[in-house]
Design a protein that fits this description.
The N terminus is likely disordered. The protein folds into two domains: about 160 residues, D-Maltodextrin-Binding Protein, domain 2; about 110 residues, 3-Layer(aba) Sandwich (D-Maltodextrin-Binding Protein, domain 2), CATH 3.40.190.10. It is of the alpha/beta class and about 325 residues long. The chain has twelve helices and ten strands.
Length: about 325
């Protein structure tokens, strides 16, 4: 090889070495198992979403996708764990919105950075909540419930699935907007709270519409209204709360995140797979429609924008309601 060719080869080698390593990362991704961290016990919505994604990751990419449940402390256990993992796309986190826009106000100190500790990847689903009552409560719509609450201030108890949970904050928002007073009774999950509504130990609560529907059809609870902005096509006879309390909504949602510093091309590849999954006709019918979920799969920027837009609303509510945890 001539000196000129040796020099050219050296230059090419330097050029190849200088290409940012993330430039071709997605081409070989995934090359090892992906772990999806769930901040809740098996069987809930977060767990269902993780297993759906894992199934589609395996089907489309091969390899392994593992779901790991790390419940505890309003998602803090899982969130802290994720922030300590490498930002290479092999550890993902399904985060309820409370992880990022409720916990920072609810707690004076968090073991994770909700802004800089994560890479937003995509929204997943939004869940409308139903307002349910024990059948013995003498109210059949929101207007009658408000009248009853004003006639008996502080005498109606509502169930939550934990301080700062969507069931808690949505009812506190309803109390503020409707000018009524209910007493919170906190449970360790939505199921035991709903069981006590059915038993008459407490009078009402917000719970996901999909969870409420079977019990409402069986007559075990009264589903008097929905937290969706308007009536749902699947339940045209159930009014939206906003028809009586203008501007009120009761929803919760979930997004997919990774640790900070993920390569943009890996984020893009995962984002495209999430969108493909939630656009699939079978997923729409057997998962989204069956659970009364709405897909919010979109760009990473869509997810960032949603977080920024919603945080002030909940911060204001939490501060005005004097809700605080150590």
């Amino acid at each position: 090889m001539t000196a000129w060719l040796r020099g050219l080869a050296a230059i090419v080698s330097l050029m190849v070495a200088s290409v940012p390593p993330c430039a071709a990362v997605a081409e070989n991704y995934p090359s090892k198992p992906i772990t999806i961290i769930v901040p809740a016990s098996p069987g809930g919505v977060t767990d269902m979403l993780a297993r759906l994604l894992a199934q589609h990751f395996i089907a489309d990419w091969g390899g392994q996708a593992i779901v790991e449940n790390k419940p505890g402390a309003n998602n803090q256990v899982a969130a802290e764990y994720v922030t300590h993992q490498a930002g290479d796309g092999y550890t993902l986190f399904i985060g309820p919105e409370s992880t990022f826009i409720v916990n920072p106000t609810l707690y004076d100190h968090l073991p994770y950075d909700p802004v800089n500790g994560f890479t937003p990847i995509s929204g997943l689903v939004e869940i409308d909540h139903a307002l349910i009552l024990n059948p013995s409560v003498p109210a059949n719509n929101v207007k009658e419930l408000i009248a009853l609450a004003k006639a008996k201030p502080g005498q109606l108890n509502y169930g939550t699935y934990g301080v700062g949970s969507s069931g808690h904050l949505n009812m506190e928002l309803f109390k503020t907007m409707a000018g009524v007073n209910f007493v919170a009774v906190h449970y360790k999950g939505a199921t035991p709270a709903m069981q006590d509504v059915m038993a008459g130990q407490i009078q009402l609560m917000f719970i996901s519409t999909g969870s409420a529907m079977p019990q409402a059809k069986a007559g075990a609870v009264k589903m008097i209204a929905l937290g969706a902005p308007k009536r749902l096509p699947l339940l045209p006879d159930v009014p939206a709360i906003a028809e009586t309390v203008p501007g009120f909504t009761a929803v919760s949602w979930f997004g997919l995140f990774g640790p900070a510093g993920m390569p943009a091309d890996v984020v893009g590849k995962i984002n495209a797979e999430v969108r493909k999954t939630f656009a699939d006709a079978d997923v729409q019918k057997s998962f989204l429609d069956a659970q009364n979920f709405q897909s919010i799969a979109g760009s990473p920027q869509d997810l960032k924008t949603r977080l920024s837009a919603e945080e002030p609303r909940w911060r204001k509510l939490i501060q005005e309601a004097h809700i605080k945890l150590d």
